[in-house]
Amino acid sequence: MSSGTRSNIDDTNTFPANTSREFWRMFPSVALPIYMSVGDQTIVASALPAIAGALGDVERVSWVFIGYLIASTIAAPVYGYLGDIFGRRRLLFLALGIFMIGSVLNALAPTVTLLAASRFFQGLGGGGMMSMCQALMAEVIPPRERGRYQGYTATVFVVASALGPVIGAFLTLQFGWRAVFFINIPVGILAFLLMFRLHNRRGAPRDGWRFDYRGLFYFTAFIVPLLLALEQVRRFNMSGSVVMALLVILSAISLYLLVRQQRQATSPLLPIALMKLPTIWNCQLMILCHGAMMTALIAFLPLYLRVTGIGTIHDVGFMLLVYSAAIAGSSIVVGRLVTRTGLTMIFPGWGMFFTTLMFVYIALYAQNLTLRGLYVTIAVLALAMGTVMTVCQVTIQSVAGRRQLGAASGSVQLARTVGAVFGTALFGTVLFALLAFQDPEAAASFGRILNLGPQALENFDEARRAGIMREIASGFRWGFFLLAGISTVSMALALINPTRRI
Protein backbone atom coordinates (compact mmCIF):
# COMPACT_ATOMS: atom_id res chain seq x y z
CA MET A 1 0.00 0.00 0.00
CA SER A 2 1.32 3.42 -0.88
CA SER A 3 2.48 5.76 1.83
CA GLY A 4 -0.07 8.07 3.38
CA THR A 5 -2.92 5.61 2.98
CA ARG A 6 -1.72 2.67 5.08
CA SER A 7 -4.47 0.60 6.63
CA ASN A 8 -5.27 0.96 10.30
CA ILE A 9 -5.59 -2.81 10.63
CA ASP A 10 -2.78 -4.20 12.73
CA ASP A 11 -4.65 -6.85 14.66
CA THR A 12 -4.45 -9.46 11.90
CA ASN A 13 -3.81 -12.15 14.51
CA THR A 14 -7.51 -11.96 15.39
CA PHE A 15 -8.59 -13.17 11.95
CA PRO A 16 -9.60 -16.85 11.64
CA ALA A 17 -6.83 -19.30 10.78
CA ASN A 18 -8.88 -20.86 7.95
CA THR A 19 -10.34 -17.90 6.06
CA SER A 20 -11.97 -19.97 3.32
CA ARG A 21 -13.86 -22.23 5.72
CA GLU A 22 -15.00 -19.28 7.83
CA PHE A 23 -16.19 -17.36 4.76
CA TRP A 24 -18.26 -20.21 3.36
CA ARG A 25 -19.70 -20.87 6.80
CA MET A 26 -20.99 -17.32 7.09
CA PHE A 27 -21.66 -16.48 3.41
CA PRO A 28 -25.25 -17.82 3.32
CA SER A 29 -25.96 -15.79 6.48
CA VAL A 30 -25.09 -12.53 4.75
CA ALA A 31 -25.96 -13.36 1.12
CA LEU A 32 -29.70 -13.58 1.81
CA PRO A 33 -29.96 -10.19 3.58
CA ILE A 34 -27.90 -8.58 0.79
CA TYR A 35 -30.15 -10.11 -1.86
CA MET A 36 -33.29 -8.99 -0.02
CA SER A 37 -32.00 -5.45 0.49
CA VAL A 38 -30.87 -4.89 -3.09
CA GLY A 39 -33.61 -6.86 -4.81
CA ASP A 40 -36.40 -5.04 -2.99
CA GLN A 41 -35.29 -1.79 -4.61
CA THR A 42 -36.04 -3.19 -8.07
CA ILE A 43 -38.60 -5.98 -7.60
CA VAL A 44 -41.33 -3.45 -6.79
CA ALA A 45 -40.81 -1.58 -10.06
CA SER A 46 -42.61 -4.33 -12.00
CA ALA A 47 -45.54 -4.24 -9.60
CA LEU A 48 -46.15 -0.49 -9.67
CA PRO A 49 -48.69 -0.55 -12.54
CA ALA A 50 -50.68 -3.29 -10.78
CA ILE A 51 -50.52 -1.37 -7.48
CA ALA A 52 -51.79 1.76 -9.20
CA GLY A 53 -54.62 -0.20 -10.81
CA ALA A 54 -55.66 -1.85 -7.55
CA LEU A 55 -55.31 1.04 -5.12
CA GLY A 56 -55.74 4.03 -7.41
CA ASP A 57 -53.96 7.27 -6.48
CA VAL A 58 -51.76 6.95 -9.57
CA GLU A 59 -50.03 10.30 -9.03
CA ARG A 60 -48.56 9.07 -5.72
CA VAL A 61 -47.66 5.50 -6.67
CA SER A 62 -44.04 6.43 -7.42
CA TRP A 63 -43.62 7.13 -3.69
CA VAL A 64 -43.75 3.36 -3.15
CA PHE A 65 -40.33 3.28 -4.80
CA ILE A 66 -39.02 6.65 -3.66
CA GLY A 67 -39.84 6.10 0.02
CA TYR A 68 -37.75 2.93 0.23
CA LEU A 69 -34.88 4.56 -1.66
CA ILE A 70 -34.75 7.61 0.61
CA ALA A 71 -34.94 5.59 3.82
CA SER A 72 -32.31 3.03 2.78
CA THR A 73 -29.93 5.80 1.68
CA ILE A 74 -30.24 7.54 5.04
CA ALA A 75 -30.03 4.30 7.03
CA ALA A 76 -26.86 2.83 5.48
CA PRO A 77 -24.29 5.19 7.06
CA VAL A 78 -26.25 5.37 10.33
CA TYR A 79 -26.09 1.59 10.78
CA GLY A 80 -22.41 1.63 9.88
CA TYR A 81 -21.81 4.29 12.52
CA LEU A 82 -23.73 2.39 15.22
CA GLY A 83 -22.42 -1.04 14.20
CA ASP A 84 -18.82 0.01 14.81
CA ILE A 85 -19.78 0.94 18.38
CA PHE A 86 -22.43 -1.60 19.44
CA GLY A 87 -21.61 -4.64 17.31
CA ARG A 88 -22.60 -5.39 13.72
CA ARG A 89 -24.40 -8.72 14.23
CA ARG A 90 -26.76 -7.07 16.70
CA LEU A 91 -27.50 -4.25 14.26
CA LEU A 92 -28.06 -6.73 11.43
CA PHE A 93 -30.75 -8.53 13.46
CA LEU A 94 -32.40 -5.16 14.10
CA ALA A 95 -32.27 -4.22 10.41
CA LEU A 96 -33.75 -7.54 9.27
CA GLY A 97 -36.52 -7.29 11.86
CA ILE A 98 -37.50 -3.81 10.65
CA PHE A 99 -37.35 -4.99 7.05
CA MET A 100 -39.68 -7.95 7.67
CA ILE A 101 -42.18 -5.92 9.68
CA GLY A 102 -42.18 -3.40 6.85
CA SER A 103 -42.83 -6.22 4.33
CA VAL A 104 -45.93 -7.36 6.23
CA LEU A 105 -47.21 -3.79 6.45
CA ASN A 106 -46.58 -3.34 2.72
CA ALA A 107 -48.55 -6.45 1.82
CA LEU A 108 -51.50 -5.41 3.98
CA ALA A 109 -51.56 -1.71 3.04
CA PRO A 110 -55.05 -0.63 1.88
CA THR A 111 -53.97 2.66 0.27
CA VAL A 112 -51.01 3.99 -1.67
CA THR A 113 -50.27 6.52 1.07
CA LEU A 114 -49.98 3.83 3.75
CA LEU A 115 -47.99 1.62 1.38
CA ALA A 116 -45.50 4.44 0.76
CA ALA A 117 -45.20 5.02 4.53
CA SER A 118 -44.57 1.34 5.23
CA ARG A 119 -42.04 1.21 2.38
CA PHE A 120 -40.15 4.04 4.05
CA PHE A 121 -40.15 2.04 7.30
CA GLN A 122 -38.97 -1.06 5.42
CA GLY A 123 -36.13 0.95 3.84
CA LEU A 124 -34.83 1.82 7.31
CA GLY A 125 -34.06 -1.88 7.64
CA GLY A 126 -32.98 -2.53 4.06
CA GLY A 127 -30.26 0.12 4.09
CA GLY A 128 -28.74 -1.32 7.27
CA MET A 129 -28.76 -4.92 6.01
CA MET A 130 -26.44 -4.14 3.12
CA SER A 131 -23.85 -2.14 5.05
CA MET A 132 -23.79 -4.53 8.03
CA CYS A 133 -23.35 -7.62 5.85
CA GLN A 134 -20.41 -6.09 4.02
CA ALA A 135 -18.73 -5.12 7.29
CA LEU A 136 -19.37 -8.51 8.91
CA MET A 137 -17.58 -10.31 6.11
CA ALA A 138 -14.64 -7.94 6.30
CA GLU A 139 -14.35 -8.73 10.02
CA VAL A 140 -13.26 -12.31 9.31
CA ILE A 141 -11.22 -11.82 6.12
CA PRO A 142 -7.70 -10.30 6.17
CA PRO A 143 -7.31 -7.28 3.86
CA ARG A 144 -5.11 -9.03 1.29
CA GLU A 145 -7.60 -11.89 0.88
CA ARG A 146 -10.77 -9.79 0.67
CA GLY A 147 -10.60 -9.41 -3.09
CA ARG A 148 -10.99 -13.16 -3.52
CA TYR A 149 -14.25 -13.21 -1.57
CA GLN A 150 -15.77 -9.81 -2.34
CA GLY A 151 -16.45 -11.03 -5.86
CA TYR A 152 -19.10 -13.39 -4.48
CA THR A 153 -20.78 -10.49 -2.71
CA ALA A 154 -20.75 -8.49 -5.94
CA THR A 155 -22.39 -11.48 -7.62
CA VAL A 156 -25.30 -11.37 -5.17
CA PHE A 157 -25.68 -7.62 -5.66
CA VAL A 158 -25.73 -7.74 -9.47
CA VAL A 159 -28.01 -10.78 -9.66
CA ALA A 160 -30.48 -9.13 -7.26
CA SER A 161 -30.43 -5.90 -9.30
CA ALA A 162 -30.96 -7.65 -12.63
CA LEU A 163 -33.47 -10.31 -11.55
CA GLY A 164 -35.58 -8.05 -9.32
CA PRO A 165 -37.81 -6.71 -12.13
CA VAL A 166 -38.15 -10.20 -13.69
CA ILE A 167 -39.18 -11.84 -10.40
CA GLY A 168 -41.48 -8.93 -9.59
CA ALA A 169 -43.27 -9.28 -12.93
CA PHE A 170 -43.69 -13.04 -12.46
CA LEU A 171 -45.08 -12.75 -8.93
CA THR A 172 -47.43 -9.94 -9.90
CA LEU A 173 -48.82 -11.81 -12.90
CA GLN A 174 -49.21 -15.14 -11.10
CA PHE A 175 -50.26 -14.14 -7.57
CA GLY A 176 -50.98 -10.41 -7.52
CA TRP A 177 -48.87 -7.46 -6.39
CA ARG A 178 -49.07 -8.27 -2.66
CA ALA A 179 -47.02 -11.42 -3.31
CA VAL A 180 -44.04 -9.16 -4.09
CA PHE A 181 -43.97 -8.24 -0.39
CA PHE A 182 -45.19 -11.51 1.12
CA ILE A 183 -42.28 -13.39 -0.50
CA ASN A 184 -39.94 -11.60 1.91
CA ILE A 185 -41.45 -13.38 4.92
CA PRO A 186 -40.26 -16.98 4.28
CA VAL A 187 -36.97 -15.72 2.87
CA GLY A 188 -36.52 -13.41 5.88
CA ILE A 189 -37.24 -16.21 8.38
CA LEU A 190 -34.57 -18.34 6.70
CA ALA A 191 -32.13 -15.41 6.79
CA PHE A 192 -32.94 -14.81 10.47
CA LEU A 193 -32.14 -18.43 11.36
CA LEU A 194 -28.91 -18.43 9.35
CA MET A 195 -27.74 -15.24 11.05
CA PHE A 196 -27.39 -17.08 14.37
CA ARG A 197 -24.31 -18.69 12.81
CA LEU A 198 -22.53 -15.32 12.72
CA HIS A 199 -19.99 -14.55 15.43
CA ASN A 200 -21.28 -12.11 18.02
CA ARG A 201 -18.28 -9.78 18.07
CA ARG A 202 -18.66 -6.81 20.36
CA GLY A 203 -18.34 -3.28 19.11
CA ALA A 204 -15.81 -0.74 20.28
CA PRO A 205 -17.53 1.80 22.58
CA ARG A 206 -15.77 5.14 22.69
CA ASP A 207 -15.23 7.29 25.75
CA GLY A 208 -17.56 10.25 25.79
CA TRP A 209 -19.59 8.92 22.86
CA ARG A 210 -22.87 10.69 22.14
CA PHE A 211 -25.15 10.07 19.19
CA ASP A 212 -24.81 12.80 16.57
CA TYR A 213 -28.47 13.84 16.31
CA ARG A 214 -27.65 17.15 14.64
CA GLY A 215 -25.51 15.37 12.07
CA LEU A 216 -28.37 12.96 11.32
CA PHE A 217 -30.76 15.90 10.85
CA TYR A 218 -28.42 17.70 8.42
CA PHE A 219 -27.65 14.44 6.59
CA THR A 220 -31.39 13.76 6.15
CA ALA A 221 -31.96 17.34 5.02
CA PHE A 222 -29.20 16.85 2.43
CA ILE A 223 -30.24 13.43 1.09
CA VAL A 224 -34.03 13.83 0.93
CA PRO A 225 -34.14 16.98 -1.27
CA LEU A 226 -31.31 15.65 -3.44
CA LEU A 227 -33.06 12.35 -4.17
CA LEU A 228 -36.40 14.09 -4.69
CA ALA A 229 -34.83 16.43 -7.23
CA LEU A 230 -33.14 13.54 -9.04
CA GLU A 231 -36.39 11.58 -8.98
CA GLN A 232 -38.18 14.47 -10.71
CA VAL A 233 -35.58 14.34 -13.44
CA ARG A 234 -35.73 10.53 -13.60
CA ARG A 235 -39.49 10.71 -14.11
CA PHE A 236 -38.89 13.26 -16.91
CA ASN A 237 -41.18 15.76 -15.21
CA MET A 238 -39.58 19.08 -16.08
CA SER A 239 -42.72 21.09 -15.32
CA GLY A 240 -41.58 21.41 -11.73
CA SER A 241 -38.20 22.94 -12.56
CA VAL A 242 -38.60 25.71 -9.97
CA VAL A 243 -39.33 23.14 -7.26
CA MET A 244 -36.32 21.10 -8.38
CA ALA A 245 -34.10 24.16 -8.18
CA LEU A 246 -35.31 24.89 -4.65
CA LEU A 247 -34.69 21.26 -3.65
CA VAL A 248 -31.13 21.43 -4.98
CA ILE A 249 -30.47 24.69 -3.13
CA LEU A 250 -31.84 23.22 0.12
CA SER A 251 -29.69 20.13 -0.36
CA ALA A 252 -26.57 22.24 -0.97
CA ILE A 253 -27.17 24.36 2.15
CA SER A 254 -27.73 21.22 4.23
CA LEU A 255 -24.53 19.69 2.87
CA TYR A 256 -22.55 22.75 3.96
CA LEU A 257 -24.09 22.61 7.44
CA LEU A 258 -23.49 18.85 7.59
CA VAL A 259 -19.80 19.15 6.78
CA ARG A 260 -19.36 21.95 9.33
CA GLN A 261 -21.19 19.92 11.98
CA GLN A 262 -19.13 16.79 11.30
CA ARG A 263 -15.89 18.71 11.73
CA GLN A 264 -17.03 20.00 15.13
CA ALA A 265 -18.79 16.91 16.51
CA THR A 266 -17.10 14.76 19.16
CA SER A 267 -18.61 11.59 17.64
CA PRO A 268 -19.42 12.52 14.00
CA LEU A 269 -22.06 10.51 12.17
CA LEU A 270 -20.04 10.41 8.96
CA PRO A 271 -16.32 9.52 8.91
CA ILE A 272 -15.28 12.89 7.49
CA ALA A 273 -11.62 12.40 8.39
CA LEU A 274 -11.68 9.06 6.57
CA MET A 275 -13.55 10.39 3.55
CA LYS A 276 -11.00 13.18 3.12
CA LEU A 277 -8.29 10.64 2.29
CA PRO A 278 -7.55 10.68 -1.47
CA THR A 279 -7.95 6.91 -1.76
CA ILE A 280 -11.36 6.93 -0.07
CA TRP A 281 -13.05 9.78 -1.94
CA ASN A 282 -11.54 8.56 -5.20
CA CYS A 283 -13.01 5.07 -4.70
CA GLN A 284 -16.36 6.49 -3.62
CA LEU A 285 -16.58 8.52 -6.83
CA MET A 286 -15.71 5.41 -8.82
CA ILE A 287 -18.50 3.52 -7.06
CA LEU A 288 -20.89 6.39 -7.78
CA CYS A 289 -19.97 6.24 -11.49
CA HIS A 290 -20.30 2.46 -11.53
CA GLY A 291 -23.74 2.60 -9.89
CA ALA A 292 -24.82 5.21 -12.43
CA MET A 293 -23.73 3.11 -15.42
CA MET A 294 -25.02 -0.22 -14.17
CA THR A 295 -28.47 1.01 -13.12
CA ALA A 296 -28.97 3.18 -16.21
CA LEU A 297 -28.15 0.21 -18.43
CA ILE A 298 -30.52 -2.12 -16.54
CA ALA A 299 -33.26 0.52 -16.66
CA PHE A 300 -32.96 1.64 -20.28
CA LEU A 301 -31.59 -1.32 -22.25
CA PRO A 302 -34.96 -3.15 -22.05
CA LEU A 303 -36.67 0.04 -23.24
CA TYR A 304 -34.23 0.27 -26.14
CA LEU A 305 -34.95 -3.30 -27.21
CA ARG A 306 -38.69 -2.70 -26.99
CA VAL A 307 -38.90 0.55 -28.94
CA THR A 308 -36.55 -0.69 -31.67
CA GLY A 309 -38.23 -4.09 -31.91
CA ILE A 310 -34.88 -5.91 -31.67
CA GLY A 311 -36.10 -8.36 -29.01
CA THR A 312 -39.16 -9.59 -27.14
CA ILE A 313 -39.77 -9.37 -23.40
CA HIS A 314 -38.29 -12.86 -23.07
CA ASP A 315 -35.16 -11.68 -24.89
CA VAL A 316 -34.92 -8.79 -22.43
CA GLY A 317 -35.02 -11.18 -19.48
CA PHE A 318 -32.34 -13.40 -20.99
CA MET A 319 -30.13 -10.41 -21.77
CA LEU A 320 -30.34 -9.26 -18.15
CA LEU A 321 -29.25 -12.76 -17.11
CA VAL A 322 -26.28 -12.58 -19.49
CA TYR A 323 -25.42 -9.13 -18.16
CA SER A 324 -25.56 -10.15 -14.50
CA ALA A 325 -23.68 -13.41 -15.08
CA ALA A 326 -20.86 -11.62 -16.92
CA ILE A 327 -20.44 -8.95 -14.22
CA ALA A 328 -20.53 -11.60 -11.51
CA GLY A 329 -17.95 -13.78 -13.23
CA SER A 330 -15.66 -10.83 -13.86
CA SER A 331 -15.94 -9.68 -10.23
CA ILE A 332 -14.91 -13.11 -8.95
CA VAL A 333 -11.93 -13.36 -11.31
CA VAL A 334 -10.72 -9.83 -10.52
CA GLY A 335 -11.09 -10.47 -6.79
CA ARG A 336 -8.86 -13.52 -7.06
CA LEU A 337 -6.29 -11.56 -9.04
CA VAL A 338 -6.26 -8.84 -6.37
CA THR A 339 -5.64 -11.47 -3.68
CA ARG A 340 -2.90 -13.18 -5.70
CA THR A 341 -1.03 -10.07 -6.86
CA GLY A 342 -1.97 -7.36 -4.36
CA LEU A 343 -2.57 -5.01 -7.31
CA THR A 344 -5.77 -2.96 -7.29
CA MET A 345 -6.40 -0.01 -9.60
CA ILE A 346 -4.86 -1.55 -12.69
CA PHE A 347 -7.99 -3.70 -13.09
CA PRO A 348 -10.68 -0.99 -13.06
CA GLY A 349 -8.35 1.26 -15.06
CA TRP A 350 -8.28 -1.18 -17.98
CA GLY A 351 -11.85 -2.28 -17.32
CA MET A 352 -13.20 1.26 -17.66
CA PHE A 353 -11.12 1.77 -20.82
CA PHE A 354 -12.89 -1.16 -22.49
CA THR A 355 -16.22 -0.08 -20.99
CA THR A 356 -15.85 3.28 -22.71
CA LEU A 357 -15.07 1.59 -26.03
CA MET A 358 -18.09 -0.70 -25.72
CA PHE A 359 -20.49 2.14 -24.90
CA VAL A 360 -19.23 4.07 -27.92
CA TYR A 361 -19.64 0.95 -30.06
CA ILE A 362 -23.21 0.44 -28.83
CA ALA A 363 -24.01 4.11 -29.48
CA LEU A 364 -22.75 3.91 -33.06
CA TYR A 365 -23.69 0.41 -34.20
CA ALA A 366 -26.40 -1.06 -31.95
CA GLN A 367 -29.08 -0.53 -34.60
CA ASN A 368 -27.13 -2.67 -37.04
CA LEU A 369 -26.54 -5.55 -34.61
CA THR A 370 -28.48 -8.78 -34.60
CA LEU A 371 -29.96 -9.95 -31.32
CA ARG A 372 -27.09 -12.42 -30.92
CA GLY A 373 -24.56 -9.68 -31.68
CA LEU A 374 -26.12 -7.48 -29.02
CA TYR A 375 -25.89 -10.34 -26.51
CA VAL A 376 -22.16 -10.64 -27.18
CA THR A 377 -21.67 -6.87 -26.96
CA ILE A 378 -23.49 -6.62 -23.63
CA ALA A 379 -21.55 -9.60 -22.26
CA VAL A 380 -18.20 -7.96 -23.14
CA LEU A 381 -19.38 -4.67 -21.64
CA ALA A 382 -20.43 -6.43 -18.42
CA LEU A 383 -17.10 -8.25 -18.15
CA ALA A 384 -15.34 -4.88 -18.28
CA MET A 385 -17.71 -3.30 -15.75
CA GLY A 386 -17.15 -6.15 -13.30
CA THR A 387 -13.65 -4.87 -12.54
CA VAL A 388 -14.75 -1.97 -10.33
CA MET A 389 -16.83 -2.84 -7.28
CA THR A 390 -14.66 -5.56 -5.74
CA VAL A 391 -11.49 -3.48 -6.04
CA CYS A 392 -13.07 -0.33 -4.60
CA GLN A 393 -14.76 -2.19 -1.75
CA VAL A 394 -11.55 -3.94 -0.74
CA THR A 395 -9.49 -0.76 -1.02
CA ILE A 396 -11.88 1.31 1.11
CA GLN A 397 -12.13 -1.35 3.81
CA SER A 398 -8.37 -1.80 3.93
CA VAL A 399 -7.68 1.91 4.33
CA ALA A 400 -10.53 2.37 6.84
CA GLY A 401 -9.25 -0.25 9.25
CA ARG A 402 -11.15 -2.80 11.28
CA ARG A 403 -12.60 -0.35 13.82
CA GLN A 404 -14.35 1.63 11.04
CA LEU A 405 -15.54 -1.20 8.79
CA GLY A 406 -19.18 -0.31 9.39
CA ALA A 407 -18.71 3.35 8.53
CA ALA A 408 -16.71 2.42 5.44
CA SER A 409 -19.33 -0.07 4.24
CA GLY A 410 -22.11 2.45 4.87
CA SER A 411 -20.32 5.06 2.77
CA VAL A 412 -19.98 2.53 -0.08
CA GLN A 413 -23.73 1.85 0.00
CA LEU A 414 -24.43 5.59 0.05
CA ALA A 415 -22.24 6.23 -3.01
CA ARG A 416 -23.78 3.30 -4.88
CA THR A 417 -27.37 4.42 -4.22
CA VAL A 418 -26.83 8.06 -5.14
CA GLY A 419 -24.99 6.94 -8.28
CA ALA A 420 -27.87 4.66 -9.28
CA VAL A 421 -30.43 7.48 -9.04
CA PHE A 422 -28.07 9.96 -10.68
CA GLY A 423 -27.36 7.65 -13.63
CA THR A 424 -30.99 6.91 -14.48
CA ALA A 425 -31.92 10.57 -14.04
CA LEU A 426 -29.15 11.79 -16.33
CA PHE A 427 -29.77 9.18 -19.03
CA GLY A 428 -33.51 9.88 -18.98
CA THR A 429 -32.93 13.63 -19.14
CA VAL A 430 -30.67 13.32 -22.19
CA LEU A 431 -33.05 10.92 -23.93
CA PHE A 432 -36.28 12.84 -23.42
CA ALA A 433 -34.77 16.32 -23.77
CA LEU A 434 -33.33 15.45 -27.18
CA LEU A 435 -36.62 13.91 -28.31
CA ALA A 436 -38.64 16.91 -27.14
CA PHE A 437 -36.21 19.35 -28.77
CA GLN A 438 -35.85 17.57 -32.10
CA ASP A 439 -39.34 16.17 -32.58
CA PRO A 440 -42.11 16.71 -29.98
CA GLU A 441 -44.32 14.22 -31.82
CA ALA A 442 -41.62 11.55 -31.47
CA ALA A 443 -41.38 12.32 -27.75
CA ALA A 444 -45.15 11.90 -27.40
CA SER A 445 -45.04 8.66 -29.39
CA PHE A 446 -42.31 7.24 -27.19
CA GLY A 447 -44.69 6.70 -24.28
CA ARG A 448 -47.16 4.86 -26.51
CA ILE A 449 -44.39 2.65 -27.88
CA LEU A 450 -43.36 1.68 -24.35
CA ASN A 451 -46.89 0.44 -23.68
CA LEU A 452 -47.78 -1.11 -27.04
CA GLY A 453 -44.48 -1.72 -28.78
CA PRO A 454 -43.60 -0.52 -32.32
CA GLN A 455 -47.18 -1.27 -33.47
CA ALA A 456 -48.18 1.96 -31.67
CA LEU A 457 -47.00 3.77 -34.82
CA GLU A 458 -49.39 1.95 -37.19
CA ASN A 459 -51.42 5.14 -37.75
CA PHE A 460 -48.41 6.87 -39.32
CA ASP A 461 -47.28 6.30 -42.88
CA GLU A 462 -44.10 4.29 -43.43
CA ALA A 463 -41.83 7.32 -43.90
CA ARG A 464 -43.07 8.97 -40.71
CA ARG A 465 -42.73 5.73 -38.73
CA ALA A 466 -39.15 5.40 -39.89
CA GLY A 467 -38.46 9.03 -38.97
CA ILE A 468 -39.84 8.65 -35.44
CA MET A 469 -37.81 5.48 -34.86
CA ARG A 470 -34.66 7.28 -36.08
CA GLU A 471 -35.29 10.12 -33.63
CA ILE A 472 -35.78 7.70 -30.73
CA ALA A 473 -32.67 5.76 -31.70
CA SER A 474 -30.74 9.03 -31.83
CA GLY A 475 -31.86 9.88 -28.30
CA PHE A 476 -30.66 6.51 -27.05
CA ARG A 477 -27.40 6.96 -28.94
CA TRP A 478 -26.59 10.13 -27.01
CA GLY A 479 -27.60 8.39 -23.79
CA PHE A 480 -25.01 5.70 -24.47
CA PHE A 481 -22.44 8.39 -25.29
CA LEU A 482 -23.24 9.88 -21.88
CA LEU A 483 -22.46 6.54 -20.21
CA ALA A 484 -19.21 6.42 -22.17
CA GLY A 485 -18.33 9.80 -20.66
CA ILE A 486 -19.08 8.54 -17.15
CA SER A 487 -16.89 5.47 -17.69
CA THR A 488 -14.08 7.74 -18.92
CA VAL A 489 -14.29 9.71 -15.67
CA SER A 490 -14.12 6.44 -13.74
CA MET A 491 -11.05 5.37 -15.73
CA ALA A 492 -9.33 8.67 -14.91
CA LEU A 493 -10.11 8.19 -11.22
CA ALA A 494 -8.55 4.72 -11.30
CA LEU A 495 -5.41 6.12 -12.88
CA ILE A 496 -4.90 8.80 -10.22
CA ASN A 497 -5.88 6.73 -7.16
CA PRO A 498 -2.81 6.70 -4.89
CA THR A 499 -3.35 3.18 -3.55
CA ARG A 500 -2.07 0.82 -6.23
CA ARG A 501 -1.47 -2.23 -4.04
CA ILE A 502 -2.77 -3.76 -0.79
Enumerate the spans where pLDDT stays under 50 for 5 or more consecutive residues.
Answer: 1-13
What is the helical fraction, as a range of percent?
Answer: over 70%
**Class from helix and strand fractions:** mainly alpha
Largest sheet: none
What is the CATH H-level superfamily of the largest domain? MFS general substrate transporter like domains
| Structural domains: how many | 2
Strand proportion, as a percent range, falls in: under 5%
Q: Which CATH architecture of the largest domain would you pick?
A: Up-down Bundle
Terminal-residue CA separation? 5 Å
Mean pLDDT: 82
DSSP, total strands: 0
- CATH fold call of the largest domain: Growth Hormone, Chain: A
Number of helices: 19
